[in-house]
Batch of 3 targets.
Target 1
Amino acid sequence: MRIEVDLKKCTGCGVCREECPKGARIWNINEKARASNLRYCHLCMICASKCPEDAIRVIRDEIPNDENKKENLGN
């Protein structure tokens, strides 16, 4: 999982930190937003949905289902 911030779009307004349930644990705002300590992230995507500049993308790692696991193991 990762959070990408488009630095060309981000204005550093802080809405992501204000709206995030974990706020300052995840978000640092110093002219631009930066996400860190992602172990606290709930993957709720509130930050991305509330960003007025549409500068945030939450990218979830794909978790293979049981069928994909079998195919990857050669079964």
Target 2
Amino acid sequence: MPKKNISLEESFKRLDEILSTLESGEVELEKSIGLFEEAMKLSEKCQKQLETLEERVKILVAKENGEYIEKDLKK
């Protein structure tokens, strides 16, 4: 099962490992189902993390005097 406090990068790495394992076809059905469930939970967690990060993303907009202001990406 996925750990609660792993980074987005670690989650993607684990998803990649699961995918490779499942694609190998060398895993018993019961274990494959468990891995699939883990992957689905990780995928949901990654989606939530990405949404949170997207909200934090700012773009810099140059002002006429050469300074920069922060502006929400979604605005």
Target 3
Amino acid sequence: MEQKYQAVLAVIRDGVSVVEVANRFGVSRQSVHSWLLRYEQEGMLGLADRSHKPQSCEHQMSAQTQVRVIELRRQNLFWGPIRIQHQLLREGVEPLPSVSGIYRALKRAKMIEPGARKERDRKFKRWERGGPMELWQMDIVGGILLADGNELKCLTGVDDHSRLCVMAGLMVRATSRAVCDHFAQAMKIHGVPQEILTDNGKVFTGRFGPKQSEVLFDRICRENGIDHLLTAPRSPTTTGKIERFHRSLRTEFLTSRTFQTQEHAQSELDAWVDHYNRIRPHQGIGMVTPIARFANPGVSSIGPELDATAASEVRTGPDWISRRVGANGVVSIAWQQISVGKHRGGHNVDIHIDKEMVQIFDGSELIKSALRNRPGEVIRKRNAQTITT
């Protein structure tokens, strides 16, 4: 401030030129003119140091968009930044945040694992057929639980080019007849593929048994002119697309679910497969739906996403408060009522508050993010306590 004052006096009192003063003090002519204008308008106070922080940034994510990003992640834990950005684009959010911006927002909200991602093994080579119906990948997966304690098996198949799920049939036991019945039904619906890729399971091939023989599955392939390809032993990455489908099946459909009967499970599975094929955009094929690529081949592909979990944190300080959820499932914060669901009635929740947004936690789970419509003073009943996951 002293330097600025001396420079101003040199101009207005001593009559030194602005150029000479600028050279003397090692600043630009624009700086000297700025000091003169501020001194004329505000006096000595105008020469005080000011923050150089910009008043706004056109690239900064708005609070509304940040809330929507966090809510999408909370409601769909298997969605990554690319999938969230695609959903924001479909919702018409402007300006559309970048993938890296969404990642940073999720990281700030502690919804991304702090550890570094595991690098993809460079020896793995991506490949896919040039068009639909050239190759189907097939496999059998378990883990479909019934209420009586029994477990069902599922024959799954995806088209290699489009990722379309061509079959998802449930069985009590993965016998040759049950597998082939689902296989035949899939070909009635979609037609006969040129090739089939499976592992070396006994229901798929008899080439590696004590006596080499032709099983029913091989016979169906031979009679329909289908080339039956087998993976090398202990090489699950060869059928990577069907394995990736199984991951989606487990995380999006099977997590914490049991079914009353096989018919009930098959009905629910059929509905999920229809959503997977027709509505859910697929990151591996450029965020289009499998049914769209099945009908219109040639869409270029991009890389896959990663989940994450949240870390535990200490919830103390002026930004945290605690509230008890009412019987109607509503939490009141500064005369603003936010619903978190009747099933949480009576729960003690922790709330993080800033100028624009509130985040509500039930234990270690983020259950709600909302904008503040009444940014007034919050009455703090008590500070939140440390939450340990």
